Amino acid sequence: MDSSSDHSPPSSLHSPGDVQNVKFCQWCGGPTKHEIPEGEERLRAICTSCGKITYQNPKMVVGCLIEHDNKVLLCKRKIEPSYGLWTLPAGYLEIGESAMEGAIRETREEANADVEVISPFAQLDIPLIGQTYIIFLARLKKPHFSPGPESSECLLFSLNEIPFSSLSFSSMVVTLSLYVEDMKAGGKPKFHYGTINKRPGTSASDIHAYTLDHHMQS
Ligand SMILES: [Zn+2]
Question: How many CB atoms lie within 10 A of CB 67?
Answer without folding.
Answer: 19
